[in-house]
Write a structure and sequence with these properties.
Elements lengths: L2 H27 L8 E2 L1 H8 L3 H13 L3 E4 L3 E4 L4 H25 L2 H19 L6 H18 L4 H22 L3 H19 L3 H21 L1
Antiparallel strand pairs: 1-3, 2-3
Organism: Bosea vaviloviae
Keywords: DNA-binding, Transcription, Transcription regulation
Protein name: GntR family transcriptional regulator
Length: about 220
Amino acid sequence: MNQPDSEPREAEPLKLRERAYASFTERLLAREIKPGQFVTQRELVALTGLPLGAIRELIPRLEAEGLIKTVPQRGMQVAHVDLNLIRNAFQFRLFLEKEATALYAANATDDEIAEQRARHEAIIARAEAGGDETLIEDAEDTDRLMHEAIIDHLDNDIVSKAFRVTWLKIRLIRQYETRIQNHILVPVMRDHLKIITAIEARDPIRAAEEMSIHIGNARTRAMSY
């Protein structure tokens, strides 16, 4: 008779863990938690508004993803944004996205590809018209959605999850180094259009090469700031 009530109780710890992770990452990207900062479990409770148990269960995930590390006798430290993080994050992206782009070029539907082109051309048109208050945010969404579409097309949960952790680190790097701004917005979108053109031609080798160039350009910008 009590079985219907047991499922919500079992699901609640998982929901709290996911809420704790989402809250931590939101505050990290909002700079309420800063790279290199030392934090305690109690401080994370105060920042996230979630119970200590959820924070304790969150910490191993953050450590496994490289978002925090335990420093002996000092406590937990949020990951630094430094040259090592930049090199590692972009190298990992290159390994994942070259192969994913080649497969996407071979297998994506015409409608999917057309949607990607339309999004990018709309962003470029807005930028060339002088821009507007939501242009940067919309450009960043367009950027993310293209890369996620290419990765998720693999239909591999392990790869998709690993990519999203790396993308979070890329967003941190952009915040503190090279966030998409007006002067690089159009070049980034045009990089994407070169990839899309190769995908439209169903040319996996050229699509992978264009993705490699794009990631290399992003890495160079990040390391030069």
